[in-house]
From TrEMBL:
<comment type="similarity">
    <text>Belongs to the ABC transporter superfamily. Macrolide exporter (TC 3.A.1.122) family.</text>
</comment>
<keyword id="KW-1133">Transmembrane helix</keyword>
<keyword id="KW-0812">Transmembrane</keyword>
<dbReference type="GO" id="GO:0089705">
    <property type="term" value="P:protein localization to outer membrane"/>
</dbReference>
<keyword id="KW-0067">ATP-binding</keyword>
<dbReference type="GO" id="GO:0022857">
    <property type="term" value="F:transmembrane transporter activity"/>
</dbReference>
<dbReference type="GO" id="GO:0098796">
    <property type="term" value="C:membrane protein complex"/>
</dbReference>
<dbReference type="InterPro" id="IPR003439">
    <property type="entry name" value="ABC_transporter-like_ATP-bd"/>
</dbReference>
<dbReference type="InterPro" id="IPR015854">
    <property type="entry name" value="ABC_transpr_LolD-like"/>
</dbReference>
<dbReference type="GO" id="GO:0046677">
    <property type="term" value="P:response to antibiotic"/>
</dbReference>
<keyword id="KW-0813">Transport</keyword>
<dbReference type="Pfam" id="PF00005">
    <property type="entry name" value="ABC_tran"/>
</dbReference>
<dbReference type="InterPro" id="IPR017871">
    <property type="entry name" value="ABC_transporter-like_CS"/>
</dbReference>
<keyword id="KW-0547">Nucleotide-binding</keyword>
<keyword id="KW-0046">Antibiotic resistance</keyword>
<dbReference type="GO" id="GO:0005524">
    <property type="term" value="F:ATP binding"/>
</dbReference>
<dbReference type="GO" id="GO:0044874">
    <property type="term" value="P:lipoprotein localization to outer membrane"/>
</dbReference>
Amino acid sequence: MSARHLNDGVPPAPVVCLHGVRKTYRLGAHVIPALQGVDLVVQRGELLALTGPSGSGKSTLLNLCGLIDTPDAGEIVLGGTAVQGLDEQARTLLRRDALGFVFQSFNLVPVMTVAENVDYPLFLAGVPAAERRERVAQQLAAVGLQAHAHHRPDALSGGQRQRVAIARALVKRPRLVIADEPTASLDSHTADQVLDLMRARGQAEGAAFVIATHDSRLTRRCDRVVALLDGRIQ
């Protein structure tokens, strides 16, 4: 696994570190503990599966790693940057530069072509047009969809749409990709292909994947499985 490779005898810095992270939600008069003192380190190039029953804290942990939410206590360090204390603008810039997202429902823009969907994060980041075209072409070639660049998402199969989502997530060259049930709507063969693609692209790009899943096909082939129960790592 590339996350374990050493560079001149020095391990690469972790992609994300969580230490003593706690998060609660209030539902009326009730306080619900979503995460209770979670410690987690994710290495470069690692495919980490996050498992647990509904309500175990998986979605909360994804949201915290993805800078969509903030912890009540504890520390999160993403790509060497301590998240605590960052204002919203700094958090948005860090999220834009360091993170990619892959969803069960693909979340592609239906009125955009495949190439336009992959290009969109670069457009929002203000990347020059010539560089955007080059990077989009590289990513579509990497996921085997260059022949579909001008198709709309509804002309693609589920597996092809998930490949587009992976290309879109990686085109920014993020440190960490957050994936929420990325194989849940796919058949076994296509799910295997998607996981192979995530592993290959993660190793090529140096990105880590944190994958929330109930899919045993996926967990068996990840580098590490972290099980959550009642907001705690088991």
